[in-house]
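PROTEIN FOLDING TASK:
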Amino acid sequence: MIWRNIASNLLTLLIVLLIGVAIAVAWGRNQYTAPGPSATAQCVTVAQGASLTAVSRQLVEQGVVNNGYILRTGADYEGKADQLKFGSYLVPPQASMQQVVDTITAGGPSTCGTEVIFRVGVRANSVVMRDINPETGNYEDRVTFDPAAEAAPPEVVQAIDQPGARLRVAIAEGVTSWQIVEGLKAAEFMTGATGDVPPEGSLAPDTYEVEKGADRGELLDRMQASQTAILQRAWEARPFGLPYESPEEALIMASIVEKETGVPEERRIVASVFVNRLNQGMRLQTDPTVIYGVTEGRGILNRGLRRSELDRQTPYNTYLIEGLPPTPIANPGRAAIEATLNPEDTEYLFFVADGSGGHAFARTLEEHNENVRRWREIEAQRGEPTDTPVQGE
């Protein structure tokens, strides 16, 4: 009888313990997936070689989670306890422990902390240091400087050296290959030689994640591989009947479209004008090609074309040559390439600036001359020279 009572009590105790464990597990699971305590976005940095124990303590101290043990247990249960990835990550407000674990074990580019961007632009280069605003979760510029005119401020140097700093190189649409190479030479957080200037048009304008000490030549290779892939995809998806015999010819035209307008909505229309001109055997008559023949892509002209330059015979003077110039005149972006290979269906043969940053398009020379007259009036009102030739004159 005694043994039966003891067994009964032990069974009751075991059941109570199991129920308690089940309740604890359910509570822990609920805590693991419930919204976290942080009311704002938080930047979480995982140091190289850090343990989950150290990171969980850091998360508790930052107020991102309220129980390091539950976080570690949940990560272990999901098989992620040993999958921490070095970097800095932006954790959204009220992120659950599960979301935090997913973030710090997923890897990929750092998504918060200090960001330093080296921008290669058409007219100038710049370096921008930005930080996350914890209230909005958005980056905000803190320091901007011209690397050609001044040395990097101390805070930028420190930011580049700090663990988890996000370094990026941003290439603007329409820059030349020479400009990109010269820009990368000035990016002091990179190393290695650039080698020869890559062929014009072969580099994809984009923003590239890099690490401190990244090789310049390898980054140029990435840019070339990206542009090749973009061009190939657009070429394969092109409609029938375009006047380009090869992807290379389409790239040449895309570079012209890129330089002719900065208005996204106009790209396909501008492309249609040049398609119509090629189909009718007309000369392209576009200033950016003439400018490239003058500068050879080494910087910008920074003034209007002179009559002597418009009359000068070069392989790029589309007022004098038939068809396309021999090479691209810049590195076009994805949008310009896609617009070139998917132009609008129009009857336009002419366009001229309209004073708003865009262009006025015309089907006939008579319509175009009227648009030119309006543009001359705008130039006169602005006190600008009115004797610079425009397309079609």
